[in-house]
Amino acid sequence: MKKQTLLILCLASSLTALAQEHFSGISTSKRVGILNAGNNPAELSNLKSKYEVGILSTSFALSNNQLTFDELINGDDIEEKLFKSDKNIDLRFDSEIYGPSFAIKLDKWAFAFTTKAYIKINADDVNPTLGEAVTNGELNSLLGSAFIQNAGNQRANGTTWGEIGFGASREIFENEDHKFNAGVTLKLLFPGSYANLGINQFSGTVTNTLGEIGLTDAEGSINIAYSGDLANNFTDSGNYTSSLFGGLNGVAADFGVNYQWKDEAGGYKINAGLAMKNIGNMTFKSDNNSSTNYILDIPAGESLDLSQFEDVESLEDIEDILLASGYLNGTQNNKDIKVKLPSTFVAYADVKVISDFFVTVYTQQKLNEDTNNDQITTQNVFSVTPRYSLNSFEVYAPLASNEISGFTAGLGFRFGGFFIGSSSAFTSLIGDGEQADLYLGFRIGLK
What we know:
This protein is mainly beta and 447 residues long. The protein has one domain: Beta Barrel (Porin), CATH 2.40.160. The protein contains eight helices and 21 strands. The chain is elongated.
């Protein structure tokens, strides 16, 4: 499982795009487009142009609570640094990709068609001693034994899926000073591939006897689930990118409202919105589907050799090793795997301070707990973004507090329809941040 744990770190290097608030700053720009509608479907009624064509927009993010950006880039002793902490490990890789998209404004109505793909890889609440023992088959920092007790659900999870969205928005009220909009986006979901290893209510003792690492006097409940390409190999990044779109098997929706206090120049003094996003679920139905809940029971005086897991690349192999040990008993098996989307509540206000200078206050709060085995994860975010915005040029600097990675400071630019930015550019450059991300894209507005 060494490769399995390092996969997220490898992706950061290979994609050169190390923010769970995707498109931070540009998604609340006064140059309203499809990305704004992705944040709140009611924003469609504020489209800057009558027509908008989205060519391609991508956002990649890596956040964790252990390693700084400098430590990730240097790459020396990453595993040792990752597991040396006395706090549990949270690590997220998150990617959102907009494909061809189109929006149109017709009188009081506006409509959009969007295509998107997602990749999410997470390690949540993982005990560092157990993680090091299972990943490396060794414990350089441990002589004798260490008792581990974790009441939470330690998860390793990977998910890919595609989405086609149909958005609609309408102006509800407008006069010289005020404007109200409401909108909805209905989404067709195409589950690609899935893998989940959850170890809940775990307690046990890890032992180091002359370099032989074992687990004894242990108990807990384990969920092992996999579907599609990730069933064969959880560690190969190609299995994520090759299975972004599966068959249609799920629906979801976004709902939003928007308010503008207009100014005399045809813009606004305040643009504010509320939205509920990703309300729905999807079901994975591949030929190799498997989702089983187990009870782990290793009596005192007996031991499971953890070195067996060192080079394992799939959850099916982990399952086979545990079943062969005789310490794992199945309690429930499901052929189909139904998972919940990362539902969130979003609130924001973009305030005009002086001419061409704005400040956006934004929050994203998750509606479900990440600990459930059937839940795709996200994180809570609060950000403040000052921006200087002209019709064809914009520069902004997101400042954010993230649930996993703490404080980040970034920078972004827009030149006509092209944009590029990062919500962690400054904290990454000084090497002190625990998050790194990059997004870019191009769209065309037509009158």
